[in-house]
Amino acid sequence: MDNDPKPDPNCLFCKIVSGEVPASFVYRDEDVIVIDDINPVAPQHRLVITTKHWPNAARFAGSADPAVVARFFSTGAQLGREQWEQGDRLVINTGPAGGQTVDHVHMHVISGRQMTWPPG
Ligand code: AMP
Ligand code: ZN
Fold this sequence. Notes:
The chain has 120 residues and is an alpha+beta fold. It has helices at 12-18, 57-63, 66-83, 95-98, and strands at 25-28, 32-36, 44-50, 89-91, 106-111. The longest helix has 18 residues, at 66-83.
């Protein structure tokens, strides 16, 4: 895959990036968007989503512009710090066994309650 993947017309997150599907936007720039998760698992649950259709974290980290990879990570980390001073959890599910349900890379930023370990 080159480093300029085209939008996938069947991808939910590509449709949110383009505006075809509405979402609750928190932030947007050229490289990432941040939206509220529609099914929050904690008092604060947001998603950092790349504007380009990278199918998973490995493809994204392996092929995208390193500056975009850095921006993706720093957006999630900064958001987590702003959401709740007591801490947060950043999660990237990958593949069926990892619990990934939308094949477009995204980071969950979850906070507002005590997390437990190991995850389910
Ligand atoms: P994952 O299971 O890691 O692939 O995460 C996909 C996430 O997308 C889940 O937490 C869903 O609740 C969330 N989601 C699905 N549809 C929407 C939507 N239309 N707007 C916002 N979040 C969504
Ligand atoms: Zn997509």
